[in-house]
Amino acid sequence: MLNKIGLIGGGNIGGVLAQELFRRNLAKTVALMDVKGPDLAKGKCLDIAEGSPIIGTDVRYAAGKDYDVLQGADLVINTAGVPRTKRPDGTIPTREELLATNLQITDQVAEGIRRYCPDAIVLSIANPLDAIVYRLYQKLHPPKHKLMGMAGELDSARYRYFVAQAAGVSVENVVAMVLGGHGDDMVPIRSCCRIAGMPATKFVDEKTLTDIETRTRKAGGEVIGMLGVGSAFVSPALAALEMVEAIVFDKKKIIATCALLEGEYGVQGLFVGVPVVLGRNGVEKIIQLDLTPEEKAAFEKSVAAVKKTADEVLAVA
Ligand code: APR
After folding, report:
1. Least enclosed by CB within 10 Å: which of 123, 127, 158, 316?
2. 45 plus 105 within the same structural domain
3. Is 182 one of the annotated active-site residues of the chain?
4. Can you say whether the dihedral through the CA atoms of 274, 278, 281, 285 is positive or negative?
5. Closest ligand 1 atom number to CA of residue 84
6. Mean pLDDT throughout 187-212?
7. Residue range 214-224, pLDDT digits in tens
């Protein structure tokens, strides 16, 4: 259990996170901050706290519209930002199209973290994922191990779910890894996809796996199209909680994480999804995978897309 976990943004993802942080007793105090009035953050926390006798948790909370509630947090999760939503004409925007709006919000978030919990480990979820993490880095310059983004764990979970369905086996039997940027060029790593330790191709034919990988890349949009308003929020929150628990309990768990690369995978100075060891210090190690030539080419294409958005971030003062 940490002393204090801060949560910025108490919307769909933040709401599930707040509830689960209480339920799983991950911190003595959960601090929720949201700008939405009259006082969304306080209302959400009071609602959860009033249920706490039923689930049996004594987690305390701080909540409000000001960043000062984050004072002294050990870990901060950032969900502040507009989500993708289906347009009236039925089309679905890319995550990159959120950049202008979410950059402005991110600058406020960075200032809040800088003032009230500059030493916190920061886990960011807002989209476009890799670019927003890059912006936080640009504004905060934290040590490399203290800043990361959640995307790969979610994309991998989607891949695992689809593979389990196709193979007719438990989701618990499927391990998989999706790397690169959290955009349409993300890279499902087939050579890492295993079912109870065996290659996935033993259970699912190549064509079906290719279709699954295409579906995985577009899985966020598939949900958006059905919801009508907003984007997926339960699975993103659960994926972030997997990372939070790895940190809180110092698990040394290998999780696909958006982390700063400084030469690893031949990438310099960009935040990209790679396998990392997550523990109490945050990103404790970056694992270098041996990719097949096809996977390597796909990874490089995804990195090029991340760089393009990062360059757009750099262009905004
Ligand atoms: N500070 C704090 N909270 C803010 C700020 C800010 N400057 N600006 C907006 N918010 C809050 C909103 O008031 C809202 O309650 O962020 C919350 C976002 O919640 P939702 O709109 O429900 O979005 P959600 O589905 O939770 O997604 C949040 O994560 O996966 C990404 O694409 C998604 O960028 C989006 C983010």
Report:
1. 316
2. yes
3. yes
4. negative
5. 32
6. 97
7. 999 999 999 99
Does 235 sit in the ligand 1 pocket, CB within 6 Å?
no
39 residue type, one letter: D
Catalytic residue chosen out of the listed positions 4, 86, 95, 182: 182
Tell me, yes or no, whether 157 and 297 share the same domain: yes
CATH value at residue 144: 3.40.50.720
- 229: domain CATH number? 3.90.110.10
Pairing of strands 60-64, 27-33: parallel
Query: At which of 130, 149, 168 does a domain end?
Result: 149
Among 90, 114, 149, the domain boundary falls at 149
Phi, psi of 307 (to 5 degrees): -65, -40
Are 216 and 188 in contact by the 8 Å Cβ rule? The answer is yes
Are both 270 and 169 inside the same structural domain?
yes
Ligand 1: which residue has its CA nearest to atom 14? Answer: 11
Q: Is 83 in the pocket of ligand 1 (CB under 6 A)?
A: yes
Helix, strand, coil percent content, the chain, rounded in steps of 5: 50, 20, 30
* pTM > 0.85: yes or no: yes
Each residue of 175-195: pLDDT tens digit?
Answer: 999 999 999 999 999 999 999
* Span from the CA of 240 to the centroid of ligand 1 (angstroms): 15
How many Å apart are CA 223 and CA 60, to the nearest integer? 34
Host domain of residue 178: 152-315
User: Residue 80: CB within 6 Å of ligand 1?
Assistant: yes
96-146: pLDDT as tens digits: 999 999 999 999 999 999 999 999 999 999 999 999 999 999 999 999 999
Q: Are residues 33 and 128 in the same domain?
A: yes
